[in-house]
């Protein structure tokens, strides 16, 4: 069966949590309550599914999210408008096959019609040169560093989205994006009941 990138569903959260906590030192472990909070606030939360198995996920949010992450707050303090990649996890057996690039292309297509910047961080302790190189080849530049209160030192990265000025001038300043499915926002739950309008 073909690989599908789709919005997360609530019943996926147990599988997402297991993937997150099996990822190793490059991803901070979490618990179901924190993951559920991300599920409720994330503007972009997609999974890769094949043959009924979740092979990976990426969580991202815009600058107005109610999120206490120290790294997210750093970007809020320095930039007016952005999409922040909080985490990406690929199952160990699926690494090295381009799934990370597929996710980054997908989140970029979400971001570039809404904001001028795509942001994230990578751990510098322990340094993972494969991760650093991956982000460099995807066009990210270091814009700062900081030591997390309960974690490692990180490199804060941003990528300018060259399509955004065109989208802003042609659409966002003249009534907004077209009403087509591929441009629609994720339907997020409100207070744990139903979906956002």
TrEMBL record:
The organism's place on the tree of life at top rank: Bacteria
Q: Has UniProt tagged this entry with the keyword Cell membrane?
A: no
**Gene Ontology terms, MF aspect:** acyltransferase activity, transferring groups other than amino-acyl groups
Taking every annotated instance into account, which residue ranges of this chain make up the domain N-acetyltransferase?
3-162
Q: Which SUPFAM superfamilies match?
A: Acyl-CoA N-acyltransferases (Nat)
Spell out the InterPro entries in the cross-references: Acyl_CoA_acyltransferase (IPR016181), GNAT_dom (IPR000182), UCP028520 (IPR016890)
- Can the keyword Lipid metabolism be found in this entry's annotation? no
Q: Which UniProt keywords apply?
A: Transferase
Protein name per Swiss-Prot or TrEMBL? GNAT family N-acetyltransferase
Q: Write one Pfam family the protein is assigned to.
A: Acetyltransf_1
């Amino acid at each position: 069966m073909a690989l599908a990138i789709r919005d997360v569903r609530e019943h996926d959260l147990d599988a997402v949590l297991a993937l997150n906590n099996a990822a190793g030192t490059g991803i901070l472990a979490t618990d179901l309550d924190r993951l559920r909070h991300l599920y409720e606030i994330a503007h972009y939360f997609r999974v890769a599914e094949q043959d009924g198995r979740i092979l990976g996920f990426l969580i991202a949010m815009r600058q107005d999210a109610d999120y206490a992450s120290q790294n997210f707050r750093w970007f809020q303090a320095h930039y007016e408008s952005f999409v922040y990649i909080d985490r990406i996890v690929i199952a160990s057996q699926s690494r090295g096959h381009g799934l990370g690039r597929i996710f980054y292309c997908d989140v970029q297509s979400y971001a570039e019609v809404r904001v001028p910047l795509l942001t994230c961080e990578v751990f510098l302790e322990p340094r993972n040169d494969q991760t650093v190189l991956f982000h460099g080849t995807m066009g990210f530049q270091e814009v700062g560093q900081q030591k997390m209160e309960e974690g490692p030192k990180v490199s804060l990265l941003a990528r300018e989205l060259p399509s955004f000025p065109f989208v802003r001038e042609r659409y966002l300043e003249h009534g907004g994006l077209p009403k087509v499915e591929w441009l629609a926002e994720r339907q997020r739950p409100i207070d744990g009941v139903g979906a956002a309008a």
